[in-house]
Model the fold of this input.
Amino acid sequence: MKTTDSKKETTTSKKEVSAPKGATKAKSDAASGLTELFEDGLKDIYWAEKALTKAIPAMTKNATSADLIEALNSHLTETEEHVTRLEKVFEIIGKKASAKKCDAMAGLIEEGKGIIEETEVGGVRDAGIIAAAQKIEHYEIATYGTLRQFAETLGLADAVKILAQTLEEEKGADKKLTIIAVDAVNLEAAETD
Done:
């Protein structure tokens, strides 16, 4: 933006960006700014977290490791809190909490169901459940890390704190799953070979 004295023009405009040759044409409702991209990301992870409140119990029912069951139940409680926190972030930005189907999470949940169906009950299935759960955690870590950074760039300090707290819990869940896998479940699964 140029601002000058009365003898000169004042110019305010968005920087025009032409699409690279062969680029995908944006939808009519495509995000045009970081705020809209942030809101879209919130809707996406809101859907994902709500879907996980249904998917985690299915994983728990199919697990046999006491440590894995405890970790999944603990993370279910956290996931329910993540939904509530996301609703607070929506409040912070003055929007009603709404969900937009997260294709990535839907795919990860389906993959997890497939792993359960394709493995025998016991250590092998538990190892598969951990693998599926960690893919989910890694997606959430990437998403919350990105959203936290967007919030910081947008000057949304309260949202940054909320998203950072959830990010740390997702990292903690991933770490706990790794420990369970390495210390017991993977060893048990390997004994069946």
